[in-house]
Amino acid sequence: MAENGKQEGESGVITKLSKAGEDAVTKIVEELGKNERVTDAVARAMSAKGKVDEQARKTLGQVGVAGADEIKSLRKHLERLEKRLAALEHMQKPAAKPKTTAAKKPATGTAKRTASATKASAAKKSGGDAAKS
Description:
Low-confidence stretches: 129-133
Number of strands: 0
Number of helices: 4
Largest sheet: none
Radius of gyration: 40 Å
Order of helices and strands: HHHH
Mean pLDDT: 78
Structural class: mainly alpha
């Protein structure tokens, strides 16, 4: 029980410090917001950032690299396609039952040798018949 009292006391101190910190930051931001030089500097910085972002997007496009917004759009499109595919697969499963068919066995080594021997003997016979004529 002593630990609970200690934890409550610590959380109370942390809460008070957090509140005091938030109040101090809010006061500083308000003071800076009133200063015309600061607001002008922030506006210029935001404008410059926008220009840099646009130029980077153009450069990446020329090189053939997709920008972040294009990648985000492609990811969303891919997610939609994956959902549609999953739905189609789910709909198809109960309707289609796999048929069991006897598949042809691939030629084994023995079958290959037999086929080669048959071809060779046929060639000898046709060659032998040509010699007799």
